[in-house]
């Protein structure tokens, strides 16, 4: 356990002082689905399955890939789902049942 802690401290110290090492160690977010289409090369490179992406989409309330603008595998391993923006002229940008926020003027102002 002590060795692992020491290695973590050493890697963190080097990473903070070497941009080249930081680029080598740090991951970048990866786009795995774009406009309803799976990006198979990205899925393979990240060892991610379509089923895992679909499960993340269902977890965010979107089961249909065609209704999703993008799915991103984040650097911490989480999956972000970005819904398609509402069609122009479709009304509120808020999902059904969600009211837009209201703002009250500050107390004492007219």
Helix content: 25-40%
Strand percentage lies at: 15-25%
- Order the strands across the largest sheet as they lie in space: 2-1-3-4
What is the global morphology? flat
Which structural class matches the secondary elements? alpha+beta
What is the β-strand count?
Answer: 4
Amino- and carboxy-terminal Cα gap: 63 Å
Order of helices and strands: HHEEHHEE
Largest beta sheet, briefly? 4 strands, antiparallel
SS field, number of helical segments: 4
Report mean pLDDT, rounded to a whole number.
84
* Low-confidence sequence ranges: none
Rg, Å, rounded: 21 Å
Task: Describe the overall structure.
With 110 residues, the chain is α+β, with helices and mostly antiparallel strands. 35% of the residues lie in helices and 16% in strands. Helix 1 packs across helix 2 (19-25).
């Amino acid at each position: 356990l002590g060795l692992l802690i020491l290695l973590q401290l050493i890697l963190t110290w080097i990473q903070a002082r070497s941009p080249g090492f930081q680029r080598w160690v740090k991951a970048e977010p990866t786009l795995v689905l774009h406009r309803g289409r799976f990006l198979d090369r990205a899925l393979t490179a990240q060892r991610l399955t379509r089923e895992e992406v679909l499960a993340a989409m269902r977890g965010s309330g979107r089961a249909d890939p065609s209704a999703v603008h993008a799915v991103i595998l984040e650097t911490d391993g989480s999956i972000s789902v970005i819904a398609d923006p509402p069609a122009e002229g479709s009304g509120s940008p808020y999902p059904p049942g969600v009211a837009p926020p209201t703002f009250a003027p500050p107390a004492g102002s007219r």
